[in-house]
Amino acid sequence: MVMSSRERVGAALRRQQPDRVPYCELAVDRSLADTLMGWQGPSGQAGKLETNWYSVEESKALAEFLGMDNITYVLRAPVYAEHGVGANGRLFYGAGMINSEADLPLLQLPDPYDDKLYEGALRFARNKGDYSAWLVTRVGVFSTMLSMGTENFCLALYDNPTLVETILDRYFDWTVVMAERACQLGFDAFVSTDDMAFKSAPFFSPRIFHDLLLPRYQRVAPKVTIPWIAHSDGNLMPFLDDLLSVGLAGLHPNEKGAMDIRAMKRHYGHRVCLLGNVDLNILSLGTAAEVDQEVRELIRDVGPGGGYIVTSGNSLASYVKPENAVAMSQAVQKYGQYPLNI
After folding, report:
1. N or C, which end of the chain has less CB nearby within 10 Å?
2. What is the pLDDT of residues 19-54, one digit of tens each?
């Protein structure tokens, strides 16, 4: 039976086997989308992660062109850090602005009880069609790190933990309210994008995650009433069991070189749907044939039994070759039909 995109993604997130392996992305940089679609996007807008890049009509058109099964709406609390714009409008965060208690008055978040905050998200979800609509946000870890600056955050964990907890609570309190409201709008997945690790190891010790962050994740968890997908680059293995304990449906992107997605399937495939992890180096520097092989091998090794969604190793960045983005989509269609025969 041929499934709709929403049905297909839902089955995978329930760790079931759909009609084919879904293909989804957390984001497509505006400049790449403009190239693929022949659009003239707003100058300098790509990479402004707190705002939504596309209308629902644009999102659906891009998803149809790339054969994606999802569309995304971004709703994130503001980050208090210096911003820089790089090539093709990509946003880069610089120094954090919250360095001490004296800076806390800067940390002003939009009222999460204000209905106007959700008007765009509601229109987006109501017009999603047959796509799986994902709300993309942050729960507060990465927002805190960016607003403090990574070095200041790490030092403050030991020198001024009260400041760290105050900022974390500002963001997590906002997310608790926002998550409950947003999950009632008609979205199909709640996606939190909080980077917490380098390729080699997490930014902080497993004890810090268990004692400082896990209780805050546990406050958010009851409010997330749709499947929860967590994104973090890097190696999450030292606290992965704690992270999964909050009831995640999906884990993205299982970064290549940091986590072994094949080992993850063997050891955690019964607990969480795996999303990932087509190599961005191949997508940006390789050939279409190399992309085809990469996707084929991922589907062959991670796809059996379901519970797997193909995505790039992070997002479709502006530096991805347009022809390779198309090749990835075509490879999913070619190899992803269940029962797999690769």
Report:
1. N
2. 999 999 999 999 999 999 999 865 433 323 355 679
